Structure formats: C-alpha cells, structure tokens
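Work package 3, deliverable 3.1, input record:
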Amino acid sequence: MNLWITLETGLREIAAHKFRSFLSMLGIVLGVSSLIATMSLTNGIERGTKAFMQQVGGLELVTVIGKEISAEMIEFANLSPGRTVQDARAIRASTPVVTEISPEINIGALLSSGPISQRMQVAGAWPDYFGVNRHEIEAGRFLTQLDVDRAAHSVVIGDSILKRFWPNLPAEDAVGRILTINQTPFKVVGVLKVYEREQDKRIREIVKARQQPTSSKSQNRWDPFRRKNESVIIPLSTMFFEYKSGQLPEDSLDSIRLDNLSFRVGDLDRFRETLSKVRNALNITHRGVDDFDLQTREEWFQGMEASISATRLSGGLIAAISLVVGGIGITNIMLASITERVREIGIRLAVGARGGDIFLQILVESVSVAFIGGIIGVAAGFGLIKLLIVIAPSENVPFVSLDSIVISVVFAIIAGVLSGIYPALRASRLDPISALRYE
Amino acid sequence: MALVLLENVVKSYRIGDQEIRALDGINLRIDEGEFIAIIGPSGSGKSTLMHLLGCLDTPSSGRMQLFGRDLTSARADTLAQVRNKEIGFVFQSFNLLPKIDVVRNIELPLLYSGIPAAERRKRAIEVAESVGLGARLGNRPTQLSGGQCQRVAIARALVNRPRIIFGDEPTGNLDSATGEMVLQMFRDLHAAGRTVVLVTHDPDVAAVTKRVIEIRDGKVRREYNP
C-alpha cells in the first residue's frame, strides 16, 4: 500500500472523529506552543542582552576598581596614592594593546540654563571617555585633547540633558549654548546621540510619523540607557581646577584620586596578557600596595549568558514534558481507536494487508495527528506571545525565529512517531481470524 | 490441476490443559473450476477448514499445498500475499468498511497489491457494474440493503481476479429471496469457470453446488454430489 493512500486513509480517520482527534492533539498543541513561546522569549532576551552588552562597551571594557587592602599590606596603605591620572599614563605606556583609557572624576552639580535648574552627575574626563563608553556624537564634537590641555569650559551633553534644558531645540542648535555648572558657565560643544533599545527606536519613529506626542508609558519603564543619556562631560583638567582643587593643599591634577578608571583592550586575543601588563604597571604606581583590582565584564556577561541558557533550558524542559504528555495522550487515544477498529483491521488483513501495512497506517495516523497538532501549536504559540506582550510587557520583545518553528514541529513529529509505535505494533500483530470475529 | 491439496491436516488448539483438535486428519483435493460446499453443524470444524483454505491460518501438522505452493508453515506476510492475489472472501456479515463508499470498498484488495490509482478505480467500477451496482458507486454500505451489501462484498472478492472464491455462510444474514439471488450469483461465477467454495450449515445452500463435503468432529464424514 503506498504512502499517499495510507496518509489519505489516516486523514479521513482523523476527520471522521474531529473532537477525539482534537483532544488527542491538545497535548501536542500545548507542548509546541509553549516551546515556541519559550524559545521566542529567550530569543528576545538574548537579542536584547547582546545589544545591551554592545551598548555598555562590550567585553573589551576593563575597569580599574578600588579594593580592600590585604591584612599584610595594611601598614603600607598610605604609600599608595590610589587611582590617579598617573595610573592612566602608566597603563597607556605599558602596552599598545590598550587603545583607549579613560580616567574620570565625578561630582554632583547644579546645572542651569535660564530658568531651568537641575542637579546632575557631571563627569570630568579625557577625550578617550567617548570611545571607552561607546558614545556617538549627534551634533558638534567630542571633547578634544586641546580642551583638556587648556582646561577649557567645554561641555558635551547627552540627549536627556538637551531635552531637559532646551526641550524644543534641535541638537545642532544647542551647540554653542551656555550651560552653567555650579555657577560656572560652560559652552556646549557637542550633543550625544539618543541611546535606546531597538523597540523604543521603532516606537519613537512610529510616533514621529504620526505626529503624536510621546506616550508617557514607555518613559516610565526602566531604561538601561538612562544614565548614558544623562551624560554631562567636561574636561578632566577643568573638573579639577574648578571643583576639586584647593580642598587639600598637596592635591594636584596628577595626585587627585579618580572616581573611575576604565580602558579598552584593542585585541581580545591578547586580553589576558594585556591585563597582566596593566597589573604590573599599576603595581608600580601604587607602590606595591594591592588596593586595586581589574574588573572585566567576562563574569558579568557569562552570568547573563548562563541565565539565558538556564531560562532556555527550563522552558525547554517544561515544553518537553508537555510534549511527552501529549505523546502519551496520542498513544492512549490510538489504542482506544484500534480497539474500536479491530474489525476494520481484520477486514484489511483478510483482503491481503500485511502486518507492515497496518503498522504503517496506524503510525501515519498518529504522526498526522501530531503534525496537525504541531501546526496548530505554532499558531497558538504566536498567539501566546501576543498575549504575553500584552499582559507582561518585557524589555526584550520576544521574536519567533524560523529555527524555533522548525524545531518545534520536528519535535511534534518525533512525539507522534514515538507515541504511534506501540499502538501500531499492537494493531499489526492482530490475528486476522479473531479480528474478523471481533464484535 | 489441483488448486488445493490437503494431506492429513490437523489443526489443534490448547484451551487450558486440554488440546482440542478442530481438524483431525483432513485429506482434500479441490480442482480448478469446481463448485463445492463444505457443510457441517457449528463446532464441526468447517470454519477452521475454511480459515486454512483461505490462508488465514496454517495447519498444526500435515501438509497444505495451495496453487502449487507449499504453505504448510508459511509466514504471515506470505499468507497475506496469497490472500491478496489468489483468494476472494464473501462473509456472512458482509464485512464492508462502513466509513468508505462502495467503490473504495471494492478497491480495498487492490490497495495492497500495488496497483496504480487509475487502474484500481477502473477495475473496481468494472466489477461493480458486473454485479449490478453501477448506480451505487458513491453510496456507503450503511445506505445499502443486505443484498446490495453482499453484492459489494462479492465484487470486492472478484476485483483481484482470484483463483478461488470462498463464501462463508454468504446467505446467512439475508432473506430467502435475496439469498436465492446471491446463490444465483455464485452459480453464475461457477458457470463462468471460477472455482467457488461455499461454507454453510444449510443443506439448501449446499444443494446448489456440484460437490458437498460434510465435516463432523474435524473429519470428512462423507462426500457426495447433489
């Protein structure tokens, strides 16, 4: 008996018992839809996380952090000047693999322009700051070495600052305006790009196209780029001379303690080697006192990836369990259906069907049930995702990849095959004589 | 030429500790073109005999040769093939598939012999017309009378051009007029040169055949020509 006829017979049988077939499919529908949903959710999380990792500087970014001094070195704590600009220079000199290095001093300061005032975090930095923190310019320019050398009163602001102080001004026109920081006037030399997630960008573009005011809903949500958009950056030298000098008589630009010191490793293949060179350089500037450490994103990123794969695994496990349950459902109903059709099988055997023909017929039927269930499950999965987006809006929009559809349907088919084998085997082993007599 | 040759065939079943001999040393030869009745009361072993002759079962001992092949210890798949190609069955309770229409019921044996769809359909319609069901092709068995059902069953038995046709109490579920009509069909098949074996307990049915084999307690009790 050829496969086409077998398939047709199977589909007729399924169509003849629509409700029963639907019930037997239900488990597969649930399994496949939850598989699709979890895969799409983790896809979304993964994509969002990857984008976030890139935006925050990627793996290449290393931060020099302060560390509690170990007990045996505690006596010598005063020898170490802490993290200073000297460290930045030492790191730069130690290896060419460090492409950019950014020392930072941060203060909270009152920003004002005209009638508007607000307290904000202000960073004093080198021009490398922009590269290290993956900033992009929207209008004007970044700070330059000349700004630092001359301790210029130049400031580069983020998009949120622009919106706060000059709400209706395009970025180009804000360049050249004056922003006072703790009463000292600074000239805005550059405005940074808006940093946002893909989905926010799309929403913004749609809103812009419709000429509607921005909905407040999206602004209230946690935004990983908020701090980046609130950047206010002035030259490190200016920061020192205006706001940090004169506090202690021995302070100088070279000895003042930094609030942050980050650098970027240009070649990830030489990451470890570079870190150890940097460590050596810093041991000298810190005079052997172990009051610093190098913080890489490796563990953080690995942690994120691990939690993504854990989510994926647990979701997959739940889906797998429902697929198994669905398979058992099919087995159950196929067994019942065979009992109901013993006589039909007897007739087929009497007119010359072989055991193999009957086996194939039952198997094809259960695979068809599973396949149809899988297709319905894919559709239900799409629905489930739509529902999830509505009831639990997430930072990371789930998206259905072709892979996840193919994988889910393949799993459904495998479940169909496995659940059909036993009933098919039972059916194919029926004795024609007793099957014909069966009432 | 002998279509069927049974030599000292025994068929026994175990029920608990007891061994029951349904057939106890049967010798039988059926030639091409014969019209035979196997007759006997219920429990005589005539059904068991028909199951053997119809390749639904194999003997416990003895020798069974059908169509020149020794099938004494044939495998299930071999038997299925022989049933499919050489044997047509007509049952008392018709044994049609209720969910498919007349043509598909008649086609059924052809599904298992690898004949292409167009050819299957053509042959099924031909046979259906030859038994007078040309107008009923699209009906389901449930929409037909008993006589029509049995004609579908006969058409199904004929569609594979078998060398031997078995009727197992073919008139058992029919009223006497319809039964008579069905018997006439078997008579016509015989007249057309086919080998027909009817299994019955009814002497009136046996009387239409040319040779009657009476089975009693698993043995051939007597043989006569009506």
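The radius of gyration of chain B is 17 Å.
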